[in-house]
């Protein structure tokens, strides 16, 4: 069970990967007060839900940039608990996790969570992952925008002047871009 009214904070999660200068994965963490989300198996409160857009890859496959640019991989949305997400990244994959608390009101956080869950549950089987316009970063921005008032929405037109710079991917520049535009409230210490 998830009570969207209990979202207390939204954090942009960034996971750099090789080549670290160019690549990073973006996801959104929605953290709850009290029992805002409850594990259906255990009945215990869940501290947060992570929503991530990813290129679906099969066992034995690896993501590569040419596939990411061409749109050959299906676009999927993954919903996981914050604890499962941390365990997967930090213990299994041994990745670093960068965290940026976003400046959003409770109503904006609730709207973004509801939009993120809706898009994940809708599962558009025709959607394709494309680094420039349907990636982890653009999907995170679209989910966030769904909760923001029209005057606060992040404009897609802002993206294209930045993503075409050499050595910069959409996900890689997203934290700096959001910070400069006043959407980042605080940078939390990296994990681990």
Task: Provide an overview of this structure.
Helix 3 (106-122) crosses helix 4. The protein is 33% helix and 28% strand. The longest helix has 17 residues, at 106-122. It contains six helices and seven strands. The chain has a seven-stranded antiparallel beta sheet with strand order 6-4-3-2-1-5-7. The protein has helices at residues 65-70, 82-92, 106-122, 136-147, 157-163, 170-180; strands at 7-17, 23-32, 48-55, 73-81, 97-102, 128-129, 184-191. It has 192 residues and is α+β, with helices and mostly antiparallel strands. The model has no long low-confidence stretch (mean pLDDT 86). It is globular and about 45 Å long.
Chart the SSEs and their pairings.
Blueprint: E1 7-17, E2 23-32, E3 48-55, H1 65-70, E4 73-81, H2 82-92, E5 97-102, H3 106-122, E6 128-129, H4 136-147, H5 157-163, H6 170-180, E7 184-191
Helix pairs in contact: 3-4
């Amino acid at each position: 069970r998830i009570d969207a009214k209990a979202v207390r904070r939204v954090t942009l999660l960034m996971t750099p990967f090789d080549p670290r200068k160019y690549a990073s994965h973006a996801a959104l963490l929605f953290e709850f007060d009290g029992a805002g989300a409850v594990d259906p198996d255990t009945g215990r409160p869940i501290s947060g839900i992570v929503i991530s857009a990813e290129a679906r890859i099969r066992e034995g496959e690896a993501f590569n940039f040419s596939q990411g640019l061409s749109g050959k991989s299906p676009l999927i949305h993954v919903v996981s608990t914050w604890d499962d997400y941390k365990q997967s990244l930090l213990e299994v994959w041994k990745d670093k996790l960068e965290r940026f608390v976003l400046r959003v009101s409770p109503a904006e956080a609730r709207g973004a969570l509801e939009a993120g869950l809706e898009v994940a549950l809708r599962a558009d089987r025709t959607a394709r992952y494309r680094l420039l316009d349907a990636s982890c970063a653009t999907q995170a921005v679209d989910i966030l925008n769904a909760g923001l008032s029209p005057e606060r929405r992040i404009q897609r037109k802002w993206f294209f002047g930045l993503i075409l710079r050499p050595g910069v991917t959409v996900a890689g520049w997203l934290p700096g871009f959001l910070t400069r535009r006043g959407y980042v409230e605080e940078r939390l210490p990296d994990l681990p």
